[in-house]
């Protein structure tokens, strides 16, 4: 997992790296699971109709890892759940800590197969102590109210308080002296020792995770796809070969944000249509300046907001 982000200090990734099994590899199934099974539980708990904003993981924490108490994004991570998927070889607990409204610290056991619900943008939470052994494998899902007017004032107040209560200072690294006689070590990478290293990462803590290529966002645009109809829909991306690829399931009133590229094509189809053909539906072509696409576009001319 790549955490080479300036200012990202909520995890000690520079000491003990984490691995990520990407749910993004199947975004349709990812969103379908969140909307079908998790969202109804959080709507009952919160008393609000919710929209899905993020479902990510599955993250693997190794011995020595800790997670500093923090709050999440105030615009999208309002009502959240953290899922404990597995705890292989763990003999000690690694509870979730939160801080209540009176400032009291509370710790909740988080056994494998359990899900904890929390208000992630207002309740400080984390695991501010080291995982002793085994692994903690978890994922995270975040929602916000569909009716944004209910929290828009709090959002604006939160942004105003944030802007007036922090100071940006230059970064200063810890001074260090170079060794007098540095020793060079040549490492020959082979499929065998790479496989061994991967296996070893899951067996013990690793303080020197392999370097990964930095992701590029050149040409990327973020677009909200909105189901403004009264039927369940599926959002499809049209591949370069012209084949429809499922991207997200959307029930009435829901939306999903997709990071995509200019000239990419998308269309909506009824969820009841099991194998829609791309040629049977109007496409929305991505371009710079496009911010949202309404589902009603697939019945007529595309409707673009923010042009």
TrEMBL record:
Residues 192-219 are annotated as: Disordered. InterPro entries: VHL_beta_dom (IPR024053), VHL_beta_dom_sf (IPR037140), VHL_sf (IPR036208). Residues 234-276 form the von Hippel-Lindau disease tumour suppressor beta domain. It comes from the Eukaryota. This is von Hippel-Lindau disease tumour suppressor beta domain-containing protein. It comes from Lotharella oceanica.
